[in-house]
Amino acid sequence: MQCTICKFDFEKVYGSIGKNKINVHRTKPLSEIKGNYIIDPINDLVHVCPNSHFYVRSKSAPYMIEEIKGMMNRN
What DSSP assignment string belongs to 1-17? Predict the structure, then answer.
């Protein structure tokens, strides 16, 4: 599994111990979820490495995934 943002792949770097090891980020903040919302794993969750997740969550209203990708591409 690769990070959606930076494409880091734990299995490629750490071998078999890294297989399927990755964080998950909710694209819809819990504060926006009301009532009996059912999470759609395809549209509501993205795979991110811990570093990318840190930057997504580095402000009170999280950055959008595309914003972080754009920051990386500019640098």
Answer: -B-TTT--BHHHHHGGG
Instruction: Give the closest residue to 37 by CA, choosing from 25, 48, 29.
Output: 29
- Report d(CA 30, CA 62) in Å as an integer: 11
Give per-residue burial for 9-47: e unless 16+ CB within 10 Å, then b: bbeeeeeeeeeeebeebeeeeeeeeeeeeeeeeeeeebb
- DSSP character at residue 62: P
pLDDT at 3 over 80: yes
Helix (H, G, I), strand (E, B) or coil at 28: coil
| Mean pLDDT, the chain, whole residue set | 91
Quote the pTM value.
0.80
